[in-house]
Amino acid sequence: MVDTVALSAAAHLKIGQQERALSLYMTCAEQGHAEAMATLADIYALRGDHTRAIEVQLKRAATLDPAERIEVLCEVSDTLFKSIGDIESAIDICWQVLSIDSDCRKALHRLAVLYSKNEQWRDAIKTILRMANLEQSALLRGRYLQAAGTIACEQDLHVEAVALLNKAIESFFSDTLLSTVDSTRTSVFECFELIVATLNKHHEWRELERNYRAMICRLEPGDPEVGALWRSLGEVYRDKLGEKDAAINSYEVASSLDQSGLTNHRVLVDLYEGAGADQLD
Question: What's the pLDDT score for residue 31?
């Protein structure tokens, strides 16, 4: 009987009798007819009545198997956010999806976006890390870690930021050998530049030293960036930590890697002039 009414509703809708079709679809929906509820929700949405469309979609979702229910709930979350602007309710729907499938990437991605839009930064970071933990690909895992670390930097969560960005770098390195043409190279140095900027901002000089040394150790000896890293490490020793001997050692390594670089030689001359006689030997 319900199927017959649904067919009649579809016929009325086809010939433009929308009000009669709407009435018939409502009758079918009240009796739990899933297809009728889907069409009814579409009609409400086309009319701009998103609140009623959501009500029907939620009722429909309760009649579906878990996989289909997840799809409908994700659509509802999108409608709540994009058409109604109700971020809190959209977040709640995402959590309903995760109660069905805790590893649902679609829901986690939406949740991360919603938390970011709502400026719930720590929740956004936690959600991104959940996505990272689901990734088998070290490269993709690194991308998520980089995103989480970048948010932490922007929100001045500097301890978390440095830890996350270092994890991102390690993940990138575990995926493939870094080379001058490697597609991950830019991401690696973006992460490292953020680490350096963050530690400089917070005057974490010893941590800055440790991170430069860690980055040097990660790279192949012939990598074109190694010399610049040794030079920057020398600057940390000279200007931030006041450790002249360590600065001389760093600049000597940098100079040996780039013998045409006059800057390193000039800095070394200045350092030698202020060093003891035994250092000159």
Answer: 60
The answer to which of 19-23, 185-189, 255-259, 274-278 has the lowest mean pLDDT is: 274-278
Q: How sure is the predictor about 260, in pLDDT bands with cuts at 50, 70 and 90? A: low
Q: Looking at the chain, how many residues does it have?
A: 281
**Which strand (E) or helix (H) includes residue 30?**
helix 18-30
1-9 — which CB contacts under 8 Å span 24+ positions?
Answer: 2/28, 2/31, 2/33, 2/36, 3/33, 5/36, 6/33, 6/35, 6/36, 9/36, 9/39
Q: Directed axis angle between helix 87-100 and helix 66-79, to 10°?
A: 170
- What mean pLDDT value characterizes the chain? 87
For residue 67, which of 111, 39, 92, 104 has the smallest C-alpha distance?
104
Amino acid making up residue 233? L
Instruction: Specify the higher pLDDT residue, 16 or 57.
Output: 57
Are 72 and 39 within 8 A, CB to CB? no
Q: What's the start-to-end Cα distance of the chain, in Å?
A: 101
Position 123 scores a pLDDT of: 98
CB burial of residue 175 (10 Å; 0-12, 13-18, 19+): middle
Treating both helix axes as pointing N-terminal to C-terminal, what angle do 66-79 and 50-61 enclose, rounded to 10 degrees? 160
CA distances from 203 to 163, 219, 237 (A): 16, 25, 13
Please give the pLDDT value at position 232: 96
Alpha-carbon span 227 to 216, nearest angstrom: 9
Residue 271, helix vs strand vs coil: helix
Exposure on the CB side of residue 151, measured as CA atoms within 13 A: 21
- Please determine, for residue 142, whether its predicted confidence score (pLDDT) is greater than 60: yes
Note the pTM of the prediction, 2 decimals. Answer: 0.84
Whether the CB-CB separation of 207 and 162 falls below 8 Å is answered with yes
